[in-house]
């Protein structure tokens, strides 16, 4: 069984069978990014010869922790099958293809976004898969490139194809790049077919290269959810984190209902908060426990979100009975 674990403040805090780890996410502050070799050394000390794909995500801070970085892992008994391509590591376990985050420092915003998508496609090919198997993408761009963000639509259409199934997606703004000159960093996840796109009738997704959620076997990979009215496409509840959280959580449940699921099936949440949301975040605990009583939660502070009114974006994963 695949297990999603909450982030802990450092590799030395992991308490899992290391040989079962199939994916690692490092949430790193500017202090940790200043010495990436130290991060690699800390991982090597704990992991030894075990290799797993690593997503390195720059953040402003980790909610509830003053640590310079936090580590979240996904485990699967036996660790699945290992593939490599140069320095990149891929693992396939339980029908899921786990990839490292990718980025480049060459070219402008659209060039870099396309490169990331094409690199993801190349890594999937190494593992015997393709972009049609993608179930989720999360891109990290800077506030300064917010106006350019719509330019990623063309490379997504050209590389990901016409569908009918496109991955769930989230877009997070981080103002400290994973490497100087990198305007985009991309995370992606793929799963074995058949895949089913889930959409409760929200027409806005008809022309987009992502869907509200994708089901693969009994797992539902949802997109990032903010307080956006799917009909008017207007952000709502500006300045009110609790109201935004309630709206987001109900939207997630609406999508899960398309697969016969409920909030009780959510096993993992990553919540991205803007700096303005941090003070009120404890007020959302009861809401989260009411809607998603079985979810492991990792909460981090990003620089901003694609809609300036958003205080919160939530990326859920659910497992159906």
From TrEMBL:
CDD domains found in the cross-reference section: YjgF_YER057c_UK114_family
InterPro entries: RutC-like_sf (IPR035959), YjgF/YER057c/UK114 (IPR006175)
PANTHER family membership: BLR7761 PROTEIN, YJGH FAMILY PROTEIN
Pfam families found in the cross-reference section: Ribonuc_L-PSP
Protein name: Enamine deaminase RidA (YjgF/YER057c/UK114 family)
Superkingdom in the source lineage: Bacteria
Organism listed in the record: Actinoplanes lobatus
């Amino acid at each position: 069984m695949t297990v999603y674990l909450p982030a802990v403040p450092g590799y030395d805090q992991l308490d899992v069978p290391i040989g079962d780890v199939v994916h690692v996410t490092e949430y790193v502050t500017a202090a940790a990014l200043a010495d990436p070799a130290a991060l690699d050394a800390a991982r090597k000390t704990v992991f030894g010869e075990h290799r797993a794909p690593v997503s390195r995500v720059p953040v402003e801070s980790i909610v509830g922790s003053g640590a310079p970085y936090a580590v979240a892992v996904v485990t699967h008994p036996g660790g699945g099958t290992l593939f490599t391509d140069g320095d990149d590591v891929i693992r396939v376990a339980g029908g899921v293809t786990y990839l490292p985050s990718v980025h480049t420092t060459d070219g402008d915003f659209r060039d870099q976004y396309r490169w990331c998508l094409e690199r993801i496609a190349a890594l999937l090919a190494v593992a015997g898969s393709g972009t049609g198997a993608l179930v989720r993408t999360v891109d990290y761009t800077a506030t300064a490139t917010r106006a350019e963000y719509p330019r990623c639509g063309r490379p997504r259409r050209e590389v990901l194809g016409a569908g009918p199934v496109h991955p769930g997606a989230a877009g997070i703004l981080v103002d400290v790049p994973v490497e100087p000159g990198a305007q985009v960093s991309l995370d992606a996840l793929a799963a074995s077919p058949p895949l089913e796109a889930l959409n409760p009738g929200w027409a806005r997704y008809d022309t987009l290269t992502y869907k509200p959620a994708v089901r693969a076997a009994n797992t539902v990979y949802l997109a990032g959810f903010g307080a956006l009215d799917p009909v008017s496409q207007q952000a709502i509840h500006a300045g009110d984190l609790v109201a935004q959280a309630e709206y987001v959580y109900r939207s997630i449940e609406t999508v899960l209902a398309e697969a016969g699921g409920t909030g009780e099936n959510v096993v993992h949440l990553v919540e991205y908060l803007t700096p303005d949301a941090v003070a009120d975040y404890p007020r959302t605990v009861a809401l989260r426990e009411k809607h998603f009583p079985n979810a492991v939660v990792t909460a981090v502070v990003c620089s901003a979100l694609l809609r300036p009114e958003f205080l919160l974006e939530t990326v859920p994963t659910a497992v159906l009975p």
